[in-house]
Every structure is written in structure tokens, then in C-alpha cells.
Amino acid sequence: MRRKIPSGIIGMVHLKALPGSPGFAGDIDAVESAAIADAATLLAGGVDAILVENFGDVPFHKTVDTVTVAAMTRIIRAIVEMSDVPVGVNVLRNDAHAALSIASVTGAAFIRINVHIGAMVTDQGLIEGQAAETLRLRDVLNSDIAILADIGVKHATPFDEKWSLEQEAKDAWNRGLADALILSGSGTGSPTNATDLERVKHVVPEAPLIVGSGVNSETLPEFSLANAWIVGTALKRDGMIENEVELAQVLRFTNTNRSTGDC
């Protein structure tokens, strides 16, 4: 059974470095306050969902330490309690089990998995998808949490030289049983190729599609095939990813979405 996915504008909350990571500044209260402030701005601007990730924890582990799970659980629970829209979890670099566990106990509605099936070469080395384990854990948790799976994920290169976007899309949907497929550009903030959406829609027309990076208020109408758009960098002050979320930028996006009839 497919789970319900978020639609519309999914605003990003990029967490600052958490305890245990090299960039942690020593004040978890400040990290939480910044995250809550960004979430509040996203909600005030009218986003349709929020996605929280441990963006500041570079360099990333493939799977995270327990302190990261604890810190993210604390912050995400606070955001869920204040939010009237669905909240999602992405545990970088690819800890689907941590993301499911956090979502299960905080009341979050969905998770993002960067490598759900197959294998990708990344700056963390070779990352292999664990769709079988992830789906079984979701059943054990008796959860309705939706799985949003990247295909052709950013910051990565396919391990298989015969890889194709179409085949990964079919495998992620039909064999990995993802609830939606995410397409991104080559890196954070890099534009997604609208043609890639068309290619994937052709081979799995029933799969909900999500644009994962690089969309801005001007290009939003170009991605009308998508059910949702994950937006991070473009919602920040001066378009700089390290800055706070700016209300004017959020309103520009949500107003564009409404004026084009939800694309």
C-alpha cells in the first residue's frame, strides 16, 4: 500500500552542525532555536510541508551516530508540535533506519532516502540502498510514514556503468516500493533538468514526482509534471544556503504556486 505523500512547496530546514560533528559550536539550544525560527518563517510563508535534515554535519557518515539521532529527534519533535503541515526527515548521508525511527517517535509524516536501491559512488564511498530492510522496518513500526526516494541522487555517481535514469526509476517504484521519486540536479541548489521529469513520467506514469533541488520562483512553472518541489537555497536570505530563511522569498514561491494554479 502506497503512503500519502506531501504535495506543493516543501520548505527545507537545514540544521546547523549537531553534537558529534566537527562543526558543532557547542550550543544545542542555539541550533534548535535557529531551526525553529526557520520553520516558523516557512509556515508563515505558507509552505505545504517542511523537510528537516542534518545539513551542517559535514563530513557525513553513511549512517549516523546515536547522538545525531537524539539531537534530531529533539529538534524535529519541536517542529512537528508547532507545524500544521506535514514534516519530513532526511538523515544524511543515507541513514534510512534513523530517519524512520525519528519520524516514528516524533510524528513526522515522511522521510527522504538518498540511495534507496542500487549503489552510488559518493564522497562517503560506495553507498548501497537498503530498500528491503527499510520497508520491513516500516512494517515493524506499523507506520504510515511515506518514503520519498531519490533517483540519480545529487553529489553521487552511479556505480553501474550501464545505469540509466529510467531503469532506476522503474526499480525504485516497482521493486523498491517508494511512495514518490525525487529528481535533483548534480548538487545542492543545482537546477533539476525538466527533461528528466518527462523521461521518468514516461516509464512510471503513476509515480508521484518531486523536484529535489535548484528550483526558483521563476522556474517553478517549468516543472508542472511534479507533485511537489523541495526548496532550500532559494528561500534563504540573498539566496545563500548558510543564511536564515527569509519570509519574502517564501511568499514569492507560494504566491507563484497559487497564481499558476498549483502548477
Q: What's the arrangement of secondary structure elements?
A:
Blueprint: E1 8-14, H1 28-45, E2 49-53, H2 66-82, E3 87-90, H3 96-106, E4 110-113, E5 119-122, E6 125-128, H4 131-140, E7 146-151, E8 157-158, H5 165-175, E9 180-183, H6 194-203, E10 209-211, E11 228-231, H7 247-259
Parallel strand pairs: 1-2, 1-11, 2-3, 3-4, 4-7, 7-9, 9-10, 10-11
Antiparallel strand pairs: 5-6, 5-8
Helix pairs in contact: 1-2, 1-7, 2-3, 5-6
The CATH architecture designation is Alpha-Beta Barrel
Give the full name of the CATH homologous superfamily: Aldolase class I
Strand residues, percent: 15-25%
What would the average pLDDT be, to the nearest integer? 94
Instruction: Classify the fold: give the CATH topology.
Output: TIM Barrel
* Class from helix and strand fractions: alpha/beta
Biggest sheet architecture: 8 strands, parallel, barrel
Instruction: Calculate the terminal CA-CA distance, rounded to whole Å.
Output: 27 Å
The neighbouring-strand order within the major sheet is 1-2-3-4-7-9-10-11
The CATH class, by name, is: Alpha Beta
Give the CA-based shape: globular
Poorly predicted regions: none
Compute the number of helices.
7
Q: What is the CA-based Rg, rounded?
A: 17 Å
Number of domains as seen in the coordinates: 1
* Helix-residue proportion: 25-40%
The number of strands is: 11
Helix and strand pattern: EHEHEHEEEHEEHEHEEH
